[in-house]
């Protein structure tokens, strides 16, 4: 599906959050059949469109399928955008980047919600997991060497150190 077709297929978000300047910083879509039951335990899966993140989605879909009623919160983090770009691009970029992850969950009949947030990856992922009361965070790892991780940083590594709940790293 082209970006234009994806944009046409993108529904309006159910929730939007703005910062003090009025800039759009987060959008959320409830997936089909999603319960807003605060007692339901859901996995949070970080998705960036990479093969590693799709493996994490597939792993969690398998775990969720073993326990009826378990759902998945997908999160895609965009780096900071200016106010105008956030209005026009934040939702579209996130919707497009998560298309395959949503398709995987739909195919596995796993209920999902999608959260697109703007900011730094690891802190946003850990904070969202806390705010949602997630049972755990799943994140793909690209398998950087120790030296590469030291020089480049690793979102998965940072999430492990920031999160206050279990983190499943999928390679």
Model description:
The chain is 43% helix and 23% strand. It is built from seven helices and seven strands, in the order αβββαβααβαβααβ. The protein is of the alpha/beta class and 171 residues long. Helix 2 (51-65) runs parallel beside helix 4 (99-107). The protein has helices spanning 3-9, 51-65, 83-97, 99-107, 121-132, 146-152, 155-162, and strands spanning 15-18, 24-30, 42-46, 71-78, 112-118, 136-140, 167-170. The protein has a single domain, classed as HUPs (Rossmann fold), CATH 3.40.50. Strand 3 (42-46), helix 2 (51-65) and strand 4 form a beta-alpha-beta unit. The chain has a seven-stranded mixed sheet, sandwiched between helices.
What are its keywords?
globular, alpha/beta, 171 residues, 7 strands, seven-stranded mixed sheet
Outline of this structure?
The protein is an alpha/beta fold and 171 residues long. The protein has seven helices and seven strands.
């Amino acid at each position: 599906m082209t970006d234009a077709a994806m944009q046409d297929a993108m529904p309006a978000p159910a929730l939007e959050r703005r910062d003090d300047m009025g800039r759009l910083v987060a959008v959320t879509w409830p997936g089909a059949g999603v319960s807003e039951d605060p007692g339901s335990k859901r996995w949070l899966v970080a998705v960036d469109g990479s093969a590693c993140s799709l493996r994490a989605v597939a792993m969690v879909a398998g775990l969720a399928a073993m326990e009826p009623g378990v759902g998945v919160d997908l999160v895609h983090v965009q780096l900071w955008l200016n106010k105008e770009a956030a209005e026009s691009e934040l939702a579209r970029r996130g919707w497009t980047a998560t298309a395959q992850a949503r398709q995987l969950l739909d195919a596995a009949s796993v209920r999902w919600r999608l959260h697109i947030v703007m900011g730094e990856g690891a802190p946003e992922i850990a904070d969202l997991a806390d705010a949602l009361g997630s049972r755990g965070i799943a994140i793909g790892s690209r398998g950087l060497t120790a030296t590469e991780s030291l020089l480049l940083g690793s979102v998965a590594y940072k999430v492990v150190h920031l999160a206050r709940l279990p983190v499943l790293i999928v390679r």
